[in-house]
Amino acid sequence: MGAIGDIVNSKPVESLVNFFAEIVGKPLVDGAGILYSDAVKAKRIANTLKLEEKYKLVKAGETQPTSLSFGYKLLEKASLEEDDDILTKWANLLSNATDKNYDNSMRKIFIDILDSLEPIDVKIFDDINKFCLSTANKYEAMVRYTQSDNMRKESLNVLFSLGLITYGVTVTPGIKIGSHSPTTFHGLEQFKVTELGQSFFKSVTR
What integer pLDDT is reported at residue 116 of this predicted model? Predict the structure, then answer.
C-alpha cells in the first residue's frame, strides 16, 4: 500500500476523518482515497472561475493591475466564498481595484471587512446605504432600522464592530449648558454610516 494509503488507514486519521465530516459535512478522504484538501482546491477553482465570469461583466474599460499583496489576498478570500451575492461583491471590489479611473479609497482592509460579512449583513448594509443616498442629506441622514429581530440586531452590531456604522447622537439647538449644547445618545436605534463605511460601500458597488 502506498504512503497515502497507509496514512488514510491509520487510526489517528480515521478519527480525523470523522472529525472533518462532523464539522464540514464532508469526509477528509472519500471512497477513492482522495484527500479533502483536494476537494477544497477543486471548489476554490470553481469559485474563482465564477468570480472571473462576474468580474468580466463589470470590469472597467481601462484597467491596471493591483498590488500583489492586494490582488493575492482578494483572490484567496474570494475563492472560498460560495454565496453568489457576496461573490458579486468580490467581483465589484476587484473591478474597482483594477479600474484605472477609480478615484475613491481602495484599502486592503476592505478585503477583511467583506470576508467578515454574512449575506444578511451585506443586504442590510446595502439597504442602509441606498436609503442614505435616496435622501436629500445623503450620509448626513440618521438611519432608523425598523426591523429589529435578533438576527438584524446582530447584523447592526457586526457593522458597528467593523467601523461601518456609528452610534447616533443628536444635538439640541438653541440651548446651552455652559458652552455646550445638550446631546441625545441613540445607540444603534438611530445611527449613521461612517466615512469608512461609505468608502467600503463604494468599493464593492458597480
Answer: 98
What does the pLDDT read at residue 105?
94
Instruction: Give the pairing of strands 183-193 and 165-171.
Output: antiparallel
Q: What is the pLDDT of residue 1?
A: 47
First to last CA, the chain: 54
- Residue 196 has a pLDDT of 98
DSSP-assigned states of every residue in 130-191? HHHHHSTTGGGS-B------HHHHHHHHHHHHTTSEEEEEEE-TT--BTTB--EEEEEEEEE
Residues of the chain where predicted confidence (pLDDT) is lower than 50: 1, 4, 7-8, 32-33
Burial of 53 (C-beta count, 10 Å sphere; 0-12/13-18/19+): exposed
Q: What is the grid cell recorded at 176?
A: 446651552
**CA-CA distance, 131 to 123, in Å (whole number)?**
12
